[in-house]
Amino acid sequence: MDNVLTPGVYTFTTAVRIEGDIYFEGTGTAAGQGDTDVFIIQTTGVLSQLANTKVHLLNGALAKNIFWQVAKGVDVGTNAKMRGILLVATYVIFKTGATLDGRILAQTHCALDSNTIIQPSRV
Fold first, then answer.
1. Positive or negative, the Cα torsion across 57, 21, 52, 70?
2. Distance of CA 23 to CAs 74, 109, 121, Å?
3. How many Å apart are CA 73 and CA 63, to the nearest integer?
4. Cα–Cα distance between 65 and 122 in angstroms, integer?
5. Which of 46, 58, 82, 94 could disulfide-link 115, Cβ–Cβ 3.0 to 4.6 Å?
């Protein structure tokens, strides 16, 4: 499986473009394991997720423990599924039908279009 991220901090000095499904893999294999794993993705650029792509959680990884720290903006494509807490310095745009298991904290602008946003899973 390609595009698997394990717990830790990932720092980018360029834009981050999610062009296919990505996987956050926790360290657990049994119930309750991996639920304290933390993933931090930092970028000084824009975060964009293409249409119809998904963020998947494996082995106990939880959306509430994924933090996207973005210095510019976030653009989530049509029918894409994003997970995690978005901490964004400027704008967030969710195109039609995109969903979020998480939260959005943007300093200037948030545009939603027929989107579903749910509180990040606690279990």
1. positive
2. 19, 28, 16
3. 20
4. 9
5. 94
